[in-house]
Amino acid sequence: MVSISCKMIVKQELEKLGLHCSLVELGRVETTGIISAAQMSEIRAVLFQSGLELMDNKKSILVEKIKNVIIEMSLYSDTQLKINFSNYLSEKLNLDYTYLANIFSEDQGITIEHFIIDHKIQRVKELIAYNELNLTEISWKLNYSSVAHLSTQFKKVTGITPSSFKHLEHTSRTALENV
Question: At what angle do helices 147-158 and 112-130 cross, to 10 degrees?
Fold first, then answer.
């Protein structure tokens, strides 16, 4: 679950099944009472119909938590990190970064760093398309050391410069939550 609409869908579907949600957040749901095996099957089916997946193994849940920390950092944080991201992630999840990195890479087939870069570039594209911030403001907002660093990384990932991207038609964009 990486968007507000996903959280709303999950809450609505669980309530339709007669379950009361005490908490619905990115990648996590708490309900009151015990859920039976039959209810779990129903939950899995209704979520699947909505394009969502129920994760119930520890590795998938941990990978989702890692993604959620990355998404929260890039979408909802306008402040610069005072520590490097590996330390931040370790502190946030209370686990060793090497362990987190190995689990993530094994499950996703890419490194955490590559996922962050891909995610940040999608966010840069989104911010360029909104046309509300200039590249300096975007680079600051997404914790780049400079506009040159953002531009270099953007070109490496997309094959074009941010300026060239700005002049393209933005009719077929990938939603950030689908990255």
Answer: 100
